[in-house]
Amino acid sequence: MAAATKTYEYSVRDRAGKLTSGKLEAANEAVLVSKLKQMGYAPVSVRETGGGGGLNMEIKLPFGNGVKLADLAIMSRQFATMINSGLSLLRALTILADQTSSPKLRETLAEVRSDVETGVSLSNALAKHPKVFPPLMVNMCRAGEVGGFLDGVLLRIAENYESEVKLQRKIKSAMTYPTVILCFALLAVAGMLIFIVPVFEEMFDSLGGTLPAATQVLVFLSNQMAWFAPTLLVTIVASVVVWNRIKNNLRVRETVDPLKLKLPVFGGLAQKVALSRLTRNLGTMISAGVPILQALDIVADTTGNIVVTKAVRDVQQSVRQGESLAAPLAQHKVFPAMVVQMLAVGEDTGALDTMLGKISDFYDQEVEATTEALTALLEPLMIAVLGGIVGAMIIALYMPIFSIFEQIE
After folding, report:
1. I want to staple 346 with a disulfide (CB 3.0 to 4.6 A). Which of 130, 168, 355, 407 is the partner?
2. Sign of CA dihedral 249, 251, 256, 258
3. How far apart are CA 279 and CA 276, in angstroms?
4. Is the Cβ–Cβ distance between 155 and 80 less than 8 Å?
5. What is the 3-state secondary structure (H, E, C) of 130-159?
6. Residue 400: its pLDDT value, please?
7. How far apart are CA 123 and CA 145, in angstroms?
């Protein structure tokens, strides 16, 4: 009796390097891979279809398929360790693809391995996936390949991304508490307006008389909650969706980013975050041997603020004309005098990458101190606001009762 066969979906690259996919039947994966190699293809991925449906069907979600910065940091450090240990590039890529927890990164690394297997350099293979591997990573790998120190470059990339992830976590941690308190405040207000105020309203109607102005406002808001609450919820969700779509638009950024830097307290925090990213990324690229003009071109888009981005573009043009790096920086107010002076010293001593690293460390510490101060300030402030809102609502509810007691007396 003939052996039972299964249906597999496969992705392969032909002799020209073109990625193609299709379906074939085989007894198992090993037989299928062997058949594909005999046909002249380089297998990238193989997956059993399970008859095309039922419980074996693969479910793909429309979200959550991106690659996080933390995944790239872990991948880079593991990659550097394996290359430094003497593993071949192909073997290291295979191991990375097998052990990463990100489905998107796993799939992309498999394609990178296939490209490298056909003779493409690692940096060019990474460059084919700009949505997964940032230009900073691609260009540093290219410099490492040329200089013969790929493991060292990958280690610098890992350290850079780990610092960036740490910075992001500090900011998120500082904003978590105020956000939670604000949500509780909104829920408390909504709960009182929906469930508690109507009970008091019925009691007020039975007593008769004219309600105080504050109580009338509270009753009016309670009566409007039937349509206002759903409208507000839809508006908030729609605003978040629209903002996520337009926030990277150039016109929007040209309007919003300058305003971010002018905000009290938060403006200084945004400036420190942008300068930390700029100096860290620029120092990492220069230490990896990337030319200064190319490094400036790449890091300009990594700052997160268009004001800093435009300033870096202007500095790039000045450097292209033969000026020093520090001199044109002094013409932009977004760069503090300390940054300009430290970069000037770094250029004079030939240790620009080291000085950029020190500036980045300084601003990382500044961001940490600022976020801690903000958290310490916002915690009692938010509690006071929440208590004030709830207290004002309770007073407004009991004002008619107090007036009745005064009339009885």
Report:
1. 355
2. positive
3. 5
4. yes
5. CCCCCHHHHHHHHHHHHHCCHHHHHHHHHH
6. 77
7. 8
> CA–CA separation, 154 vs 199, rounded Å?
65
| Closest C-alpha to 358, from 267, 296, 279 | 279
Contact status, residue 270 vs residue 263, Cβ threshold 8 Å: yes
Q: What is the pLDDT of residues 29-83, one digit of tens each?
A: 777 777 777 777 777 777 776 544 433 333 333 334 468 888 888 888 888 888 8
The strand pair at 19-26 and 42-48 is best described as unpaired
**Nearest C-alpha neighbor of 293 from the set 316, 311, 325, 315:** 316
Element (H, E) at 21: strand 19-26
Predicted confidence at residue 355, as pLDDT, reads 92
Phi and psi torsions of 400, nearest 5°: -65, -35
Q: Give the residue from 300, 311, 316, 296 showing the smallest Cα distance to 258.
A: 311
Residue whose structure tokens are 């037989």: 31
| Total residue length of the chain | 409
Q: Give residue 238's pLDDT.
A: 93
For 314-330, give one letter per residue: b (16+ CB within 10 A) or e: ebbebbeeeeebbebbe
Residues of the chain with pLDDT under 70: 1-5, 14-20, 22, 49-66, 207-209, 403-409
Q: Which amino acid belongs to residue 357? A: G
Question: What amino acid occupies position 316?
Answer: Q
332 by Cβ neighbours in 10 Å (0-12 / 13-18 / 19+) ranks as: middle
